[in-house]
Amino acid sequence: MALLDSDRLFPVEPGVRSIARGLYEGVKDLPIISPHGHTDPRWFAENNPFPDPAQLFVTPDHYVFRMLCSQGIKLESLGVPRADGGWTETDGRKIWKIFATNYHLFRATPSRMWLDHAFQDVFGVTKRLSAETADEIYDQIADCLQRPEFRPRALFERFGIEVIATTEGALDDLKWHRMIRESGWKGRVVTAYRPDQAVDPEYAGFTETVEKLGELCGTDATTWSGYLEAHRIRRAYFKEQGGATSSDHGHATARTENLSEAEAAHLFDKALRGACTAEEADAFRGQMLTEMARMSIDDGLVMQIHCGSSRNHSGPVLNSFGRDKGFDIPSRTDYVRSLKPLLDAVGMRDDVSIIAFTLDETTYSRELAPLAGVYPALKLGPAWWFFDSPEGMMRYRQQVTETAGFYNTVGFNDDTRAFCSIPARHDVARRVDCAYLAHLVATGRLDQDEAGEVAYDLSYRLAKQAYRL
């Protein structure tokens, strides 16, 4: 049987569904532009087979193991590595059995659609995953993974990926990106500059990171001017060695500052000494967003701001397993007041591009769409993370289009660590956008030919243009 309905996510009313289906046919096979994500460049550099189905679908994907964790299943039993090097399950079949036995937990979630899409379209699975089918499906996928056509580069090409951006920290040597480039493979894998650990005074080891940054750059990064110069040097390195076209900033709030040089230097000195209060640490992060925007004017890197997440919410999980283990929770975010210092500094310029994301969708129509609808420097990122779901994507279009239009948005990015979910996620976005456009056509608000152009732009052109790819 087919795991997926061919008309999934299209409107129910036959006439509108027909319009949506026609629009989708025009964009479903467009190349994928994946401008922001967390796939491992080592996969494409070494091009080794993925180890087993559990290592491909379960252990690296916080969308999957956070749901299982919510039902009391231990992260150790899913193979998630412990920070202290303690025991975790390494038998892929055992991990898969737990996953399959609890697959019902994913009913009606976006993860279920992405997983079924990968099972069916990538690996030819025709039976629903369950405790009864676990071994059979595990064997089928494991057998595929041993074949050359299922290695990372082959899948990259099969998925129709034109370009994919990974995300590396400020100290990364980018050796995997160099290896990809030197291999002669034609797949385009670029990096993005993610300096969080070097701009957040509350990040463990901040002072040591700054010192290492200076060592890498041959500058005294413990002075304010030397610190800024070190970031400029690293950004240039990421462009040259990793093909970077963007920087990425994951902050708890959207706060920005535009302090005088003396005020910023004083705050930086306190940060290095570990003497910042929580308020001062937030102010320093805010100042660095404005500094990074100024650097973008000079070097052309597109600036992404991902904020509004209470990251690593569980202290015990953070201590046992480290960061980014599914315990990042959306929080209320203020953009109108928080972004004003940054927008006062650079917002009216057309030679810098700032893409704002949110985990607080209540801000779409009230704050972000009006801001993106007037400031030349600001664009609105797509429904993100907790809202990169059919309902979230539709709410996004409904709330932002009337104020920001389509062309102050930047298409879609998948922001994933789960490689095989990339085509599924883009397919979901294209279907939802076509459903929304079909409704506009059916209600007389958009001509059919215009809808086709917009569908193309949302699926392909806007992301390529916004990220300068």
TrEMBL record:
GO terms for molecular function: glucuronate isomerase activity. Signal peptide: none annotated. The keyword Isomerase applies. InterPro entries: Metal_Hydrolase, Uronate_isomerase. Transmembrane segments: none annotated. It comes from the Bacteria. Its EC number is 5.3.1.12. It is an enzyme of class 5 (isomerase). Belongs to the metallo-dependent hydrolases superfamily. Uronate isomerase family. NCBIfam families: PRK02925.1. This is Uronate isomerase. It comes from Pannonibacter anstelovis.
